[in-house]
């Protein structure tokens, strides 16, 4: 900062001293040799220094010499030479007590007289703020680790439950009971897969392409016996969504894929199930289509089952609508979220 050339050096100097005296933050006025011309009262108080041990002494000899930091010396020299300027420079002040984290700013005061150059150094103590930030980061990191571990444990537990359900389905004599147990097994396995996906993510945004590919791969492995007869394909754009939204979308895909595998390809009929997701602006469209036998008229008129209810409920949570239409051949289920919806 350069003073007006017409300003008398004594007037400018007195003005700088007045500013220093009124400063609530620790501040020093240094001469061209980096000796302390004056210090604010807050500086004496913040660093427990007697005014008589500060004024007139070199900055780097204050206290027990803790201010003698080579990088600070270099930066102050460069500031005096107009080569650089110290702005929000952070340094650790190491004294007899615990280190303190300081933020320094320096401005050159040029009165138009080479012998009257001054340097205004202001200091902020951010030790407690940095400690608080570190504690917060450590807590968040610990929480993330615990949450991931919990997700792993939940996924493992769900797989155990799914295994028990499958074994029970093989032992029972009733076809209806066996069918219900297998449905429960598939749903538990789908939840386990979702949990594994969340545990593998970083608890933040989820890239849908890889997520859906892995999900469908797991569903195919557990439900498709002949992959040459039935295939499960995924086409997804580069969309990235929040983890909670990915869970809802994953559950919708799971229910629709399971439904298609159960009803679209009776007997030894083969075909393809396609999971497609495309976004445009705030809107998006998810579809699960098959080239199977389509929806029989009697089934279309029947009361909606558990899977349909789950899909409808999840779609409502996402402010989306559900529509079913013929694929000629097969069936297409569309989940649509309009652009501009809340």
From TrEMBL:
Which GO MF terms are attached to this record? ATP binding; protein histidine kinase activity
- SMART domains associated with the record: HATPase_c (SM00387), PAS (SM00091)
User: Do the record's keywords include Plastid?
Assistant: no
Q: Which Pfam families match?
A: HATPase_c_2, HisKA_2, PAS_4
Main EC class of this protein? transferase
The Histidine kinase/HSP90-like ATPase domain sits at 244-341
- Supply the InterPro entries for this chain: HATPase_C_sf, HATPase_dom, PAS, PAS-like_dom_sf, PAS_4, Sig_transdc_His_kin_sub2_dim/P
For this entry, the protein name equals histidine kinase
Can you name the source organism? Allosphingosinicella ginsenosidimutans
Starting at the broadest rank, the lineage of the source organism is: Bacteria, Pseudomonadati, Pseudomonadota, Alphaproteobacteria, Sphingomonadales
């Amino acid at each position: 900062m350069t003073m007006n050339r017409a300003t008398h050096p004594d007037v400018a100097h007195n003005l700088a001293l007045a500013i220093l005296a009124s400063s609530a933050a620790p501040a020093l006025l240094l001469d061209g040799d980096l000796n302390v011309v004056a210090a604010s009262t807050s500086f004496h108080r913040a660093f427990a220094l007697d005014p008589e041990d500060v004024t007139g002494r070199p900055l780097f000899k204050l206290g027990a010499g803790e201010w003698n930091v080579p990088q600070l010396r270099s930066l102050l020299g460069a500031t005096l030479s107009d080569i650089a300027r110290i702005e929000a420079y952070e340094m650790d002040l190491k004294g007899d007590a615990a280190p303190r984290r300081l933020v320094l700013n320096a401005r050159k005061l040029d009165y138009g007289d080479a012998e009257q150059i001054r340097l205004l150094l202001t200091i902020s103590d951010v030790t407690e703020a940095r400690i608080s930030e570190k504690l917060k980061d450590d807590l968040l990191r610990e929480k993330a680790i615990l949450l991931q571990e919990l997700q792993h444990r939940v996924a493992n537990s769900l797989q155990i439950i799914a295994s028990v359900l499958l074994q029970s389905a093989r032992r029972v004599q009733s076809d209806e009971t066996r069918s219900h147990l297998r449905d429960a097994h598939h749903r538990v396995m789908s939840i386990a897969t979702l949990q594994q996906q969340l545990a593998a993510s970083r608890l933040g945004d989820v890239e849908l392409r890889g997520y859906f590919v892995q999900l469908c791969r797991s569903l195919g492995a557990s439900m498709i016996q002949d992959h040459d007869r039935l295939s499960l394909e995924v086409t997804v754009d580069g969309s990235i969504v929040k983890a909670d939204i990915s869970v809802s979308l994953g559950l919708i895909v799971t229910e629709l894929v399971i439904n298609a595998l159960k009803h679209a390809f009776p007997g030894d009929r083969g075909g393809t199930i396609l999971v497609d997701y495309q976004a445009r602006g705030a809107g998006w469209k998810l579809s699960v289509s098959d080239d199977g036998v389509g929806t029989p008229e009697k089934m279309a008129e029947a009361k909606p089952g558990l899977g349909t209810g789950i899909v409808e409920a999840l779609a409502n949570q996402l402010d989306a609508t559900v529509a079913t239409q013929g694929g000629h051949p097969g069936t297409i289920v569309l989940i649509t979220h309009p652009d501009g919806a809340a």
